[in-house]
Amino acid sequence: MAAAVRENKKNIKLVKKDNGEMDRMRKRIFFISFIPIIFFALIITRLWFLQIQEVDTYRQKAENNRIRTIKIAAPRGNIVDREGKPVVSNRPSYNVVLAREGNKVDENLIKKVASLLNLDINLLLEQERKAARESAHMPITLAEDIGWDGVVTIENNRMDLPGVRIEVIPRRIYHYGNTASHLIGYLGKINKKELAQAEKGVYGNNDLIGKMGLEKLREKELRGQRGTRFMEVNSQGFEQKILKEKDPIPGDDLQLTIDMDLQKAAEEAMKDKDGTPLSGAVVALEVNSGKMLALVSSPELEIEKFIGGISYKDWQEILNNPYLPLVNKLVNAQYAPASTYKIVVALAGLAENIITKDTEFYCPGHYRIGNRTVYCWKRRGHGKVNLKRALSESCDVYFYQVGQKLGVDRIAKYAKMFGLGQKTGIEMEHEKPGLVPTSDWKKRVKGVAWQKGETLSVAIGQGFNLVTPVQLAFMTAMVANGGTLYKPGIVNMVKKPDGEIIERFSPQIISHMSGQGYNLQLIRGGLLEAVNGKHGTGRRAILKDLDIKVAGKTGTAQVVKLKHVKHLKDKDIPYKYRDHAWFTCYAPADKPEIVVTVLVEHGQHGGSAAAPVAQKVLEAYFNKKLHKSGDVNVAF
Amino acid sequence: MLRFDRRIISSFDWISLILLLIILGIGLLNLYSSTWTGTSPSTLFTKQLILSIVGIVTILFMLLFDYSLLKKTGYVIHFLIILLLAYTTFMAGDTIAGTQRWIRLGFFNLQPSELAKLSLVIVLASCYATHEAIDGYTIKDLIKPFLLAIIPFILIVLQPDLGTAGMMAIIAVSMTAIVKIRKHVIAVILCMGLVGIPLYWHFVMDDYQKKRVETFINPDADPMGQAYQIKQSIIAIGSGGLLGKGFKEGTQGHLHFLPERHTDFAFAIWAEEWGFVGSIILLACYLLLLVWGLNVAMTARDKFGMFMAFGLIALIFWQAVINLFMVMGWFPVVGIPMPLISYGGSSLLVTIISFGLLINIRSRKDIPAK
Lengths: 636, 370
Hints:
A: 636 residues, disordered C terminus, B: 14 helices, 3% strand
C-alpha cells in the first residue's frame, strides 16, 4: 500500500513537466487517494472496538442468542408411611411450553397448538398474556398435563411449531386420595413473596412449592435441586443440539410415623351413618414414644384441586363449607376440654392432698356456692361418690368441690404439668397453645379479679380453659405412661435418594412428672371404670370382639350457655349450638400402647358421638396387630 | 484490430489480477461457509464459482481489445442497458420484495441496474475525456453528463431500488469531482442538492424506505426489523474477536440470527468466522486495490483511461464503504453489496469486468491507441 502511494507521488513529479490538464487531474486523484485510506482507517478502528475492545459483550450476546437454558424440574421427594407404603410420589406429566425469542409471540403458533390439542384457544392466549405480564423472557407454559396422545400430536407436528417444546414435569400422585391432607399439605405455584424470600436461583417463576403441611414445612428436603440443559437453538427457536446437561437431584424421601391403614380407618370412623364426614379431629399416638399413628382433621381437603392454583368455584365451595375443611382442627382450633379436664383436677386434688382415693362427696345433682346454684349433668344426682366413680360417671359435683378446695391456680399448675397451655411442638403450622387460666392471667388480660364461681367452671373444663386435640392426646399419654411428656413425632426418617438416612426420629422427653406414679395409677383406675364400669360414660368404646381393655374419659363441651338450648331436645338444637363431643382413651388398659383422642364438633355427647369413633380406631389398630402376629405364627 | 500486441504481456497488470483473485477467493470461501447447508455446499456457491471462472476468462479475452473502443461503443452499450432497465421497470421484471430488478436468464437472474453502474462510468469517462473546457465546465457543459446519468437513475428509482440509484448519483458526482468546473457552477450544484434532498425525501421515497432511515436514526422503534438486522450483524462481528470462531463455525450466521447473511451482510460472516485478523487481511487487500486502482488512473495513457479507471475505483470504493458502514451499524440498510464478497451474479460480473478494464488500462499505459 505504502509502495503504491510512493509510486503515485513519483508520478506526480513525472508528469509535472507536461503541465497539461491531465496533470491537474493526476494531482487531484493523488489527493483523492487519501479518502479511501481515511475511510478504511475509520472502519478498522470500528472493527478494533467491536472485535477487540468489546468482544466479551458481543460474545455474550451471541451466546444468549444461541443458547437456550432449559430448567429440568427435580422429582420431589416421596412420602411413605411407617411401613414404607407410598403416600405421595410423582408421575411424569407433560406441559406444552413456548420459548420466546425477543418479546414477540406468534399468536398463530398458539392457535395451531390449541387446534392440535383440541383446547380452548382463549385459555391458551390467557396463559400467554399472564406470562407476558410476569416476565418478558421466561418460556410460557401453554397447556399443562396434556397426556401421552397430546405429546405424540405435538411431536409429529414439530416442524410447524418452532419454539414449542414438551416439558416433562414430575407431578404429585396422592396414593390415598385426600387422606391425611392437613398433614401432607399441598403444592401450588410459587408466588412473588415466596420467590423473593427464597434463595436466588432455587426457584423459577412457575415452580411449584409446598403451601401447607409437610410439603411446606419440609420443602427444603423435598424439593431437590433442579437440573439445567443448555440447548443450541436457531433464530426460529428450533433446537439444534444439546450442548451441556446437568441432571436434577431428586428431593429427599420422608417416612412418616403415621400408619396409613390406621389413618384411613380413623378417617372412615369420622363419618356419620350416611358416610358424610363429621367435623372434628382424631389423634392416635404411641404412648411410649410420642410417635403419631394417625392425625385426622375432618373433613379432609381435596388436595388435588390445589395443584397449579385452585379455581374460584372450588375455593368458594371450601370457604362456604360449614364444616370448615380449611381449618386443621388438630392444632389450629382450640376447644373447651370439658369433662376430660377432670383428669387434671383429680391429679391436682390427689397431689395436693385435698382428696385420697377414698374421699367421698355427696352429689345431690346440684351444688350451691354463695347464692348461686350449679348443677351436675345428672340432675338426679350421683349420691355418695369416690374418685373412681367420680371419674367413671363424670360427676360434676365431686369436682366442683375438689376444684373449689384447690383454687384455680393450683389446678393450673397441674394442667401445665400435663403440657396444656403450651405448644406441643408438632410439625404442623399455626399450632395454638391452648389456654390454662390463672387468677393472674385474668387480672392481666381481663382486668378483673378471679371470682370463686369461675373456679367451678374450670374444674369441669368449661371455663376459660382451651385445649387442642393433640394436647389432650398427649395429656392422656402421660396418664397412661406414668407422667412422661414426649415431643410429637410425625417424620420417622428422612432419606436421601441414594438411601443415606439424614434424619431419624428418636423419642424426645419434654418433661416428666415425678412422684405422681401412684396418683396416676388411681386415675387410670377411674378411666378404666369409665369405659368398663356398669355406669361408665364411655361404654361405647368397649372392644367387643377383642380381649383388650380400654380406659378413657368422655367430655361434652358446651358451645353456648345451657339456658339457650336446655328447653330443646338434642336433635332440635341448631347444629352450631350443639355441644362438642370429646373422648380420649388408651389401650390396652393394663399395658398401654396407644392413645386415641377424638373430637366431634357439635357431636353433642362424648359418650355417644366420640367414643364409638375411638372404638373403631382401636379396633382397626389391634386387629391389624393381631393379624400381623398371626402371619408371623403361620410363618413359624 | 484483433491482432494481439505482445507488449501487453510484458506490461501486464499482475497486481490487479492477483488482488482480484485474492479478494474473489475470500468472497467464495465466505460464501461456501455462509450458504453451507449442513451437509454440502449450496448451489449458490457453485453458481458463483462458475460465474467467477467465466468472468475471469472473459476479462482475459477482453484484453485483446483496446479499451479505447469503448469511447464510442460505450454509448451504444449504455443505451442498450437503459432499454433493458426500462424493460425491467415497466414490463417484465421479476418482483422480489416489492421491487422489479431482475430479468430471468435461466442460469442466473440479470440485474440491469448493476450493469447500468458500469455503463455509466464508461459513458461519463468518454464524455469528460472528449469534452474540452479550458476555463472549466459551465452548466451547459454539464447537461450531457447529467442526462446520461439522470435517465437510468430515474428508471432505477422507479423500480424502486434506491440503493443502486443512490450509487449512480454518487458515481456521477465522484467522477465530476475531478473535472475542472467553474466555481459558480459548483455553488449552483450545491444549492440544487440542498433543495433536492428534502424534495427527494417527500416525493420520491416510499414509506418503507423512509422507515429504514428513521429506524437507523432511532433503532429502538423497530426491534424486529432493520434495527434487528443491524444489531445481529454487530453481534456477529463483535463476537468474532481477534481470531474468529473458525470456518463454518459462526453461530450468528449458521443459526440464522443474521438475515441476508450471504448477500448484504456477508462481511459480518467473514468477521465472525475469521475475527479481527481475517477482517484486516480482507480490508488491506481492498485498500491496496483502491490505491493501486487510483495509480492506474494516474498512469493511464489518456484522459479516457484515467476517467474510466477513476470511475471504476469510485464504484468499488463507495459500494464497499457503504456496505461496511451498513454492516457495522453506521449507515441504514440500503442493499448495497460489498463487491466480490456479497453474493450476486450481476454484481460479481460487473466487478470482474471492472477489474478487466483496469487491467486493460494499466497494461496499455505504454501502448499508444491506434
